[in-house]
Amino acid sequence: MNRLHMRYCRSARWTRRVEHTLLPWALHGVDLGDAVLELGPGFGVTTRLLAARTRALTAVEIDGDLAQRLRGRGFDVVHGDATRLPFDDATFSAVVCFTMLHHLPDPSAQDRLFAEALRVLRPGGVFAGSDSRVSLRFRLYHVADTMTPVDPQGLAARLTSVGFTDARTSVAPRAFRFRAVRPGSG
C-alpha cells in the first residue's frame, strides 16, 4: 500500500466507518460459527471487532510487519498467503475478508483465494466479506499501489465456478458485500 492508503487504513475515520457501517452491513445475517478465518486483515481494524463475535479467530496476513503488529491481541495470527493457506481442509466455520480482494495482483489470484476459502471451510460454512467499488477516491488511494477491482455483478458466478453454492452479492454506493456457502451440511 502507498503512504496515503496506509494512513487512511490506520485512521480513526476508517475505524469508525468499519465499526459502525461496513462490518455490520457486510455480516448482517451471517452466522460465523465457532472458528473464523480472516484473510488479509491489514492493520486489524476488522480483526479486533471480529474477535468479539466468535470463540476462535485466526488471521492470515501476507505482510510480515503487519502480521507481527497483530500478534498478542487475543487471536491467532499467521504470516502467510491467502492464495496458499497453511490449514487442513474443512477447518473453519467461516472465512471472511474485508476490502482486501482488490489488493491481489490479478483475477486469477482472487480465484485462487476463493478456492482456498472453499477448501478450508467446513461443509455448510460461509465465505463472506466486502470490497470497495471503483470511484475517483478509490483510484486516488491506489496510485502506485496494487488495484485489481472486483466486479460485484460477476462475483457470484466466480464463486460458484470454484464450488460454492448460494453465492450472492449486494451493492451499496461505495462498497459491495458477498457471501457464499460450502456445499454440504454443517
UniProtKB/TrEMBL annotation:
It comes from the Bacteria. Pfam families: Methyltransf_11 (PF08241). One of its GO terms (molecular function) is rRNA (adenine-N6,N6-)-dimethyltransferase activity. Residues 26-142 form the Ribosomal RNA adenine methylase transferase N-terminal domain. InterPro entries: Methyltransf_11, rRNA_Ade_methylase_Trfase_N, SAM-dependent_MTases_sf. The keyword S-adenosyl-L-methionine applies. Keywords: Methyltransferase, S-adenosyl-L-methionine, Transferase. Transmembrane segments: none annotated. The keyword S-adenosyl-L-methionine applies. This is Ribosomal RNA adenine methylase transferase N-terminal domain-containing protein. It comes from Virgisporangium ochraceum.
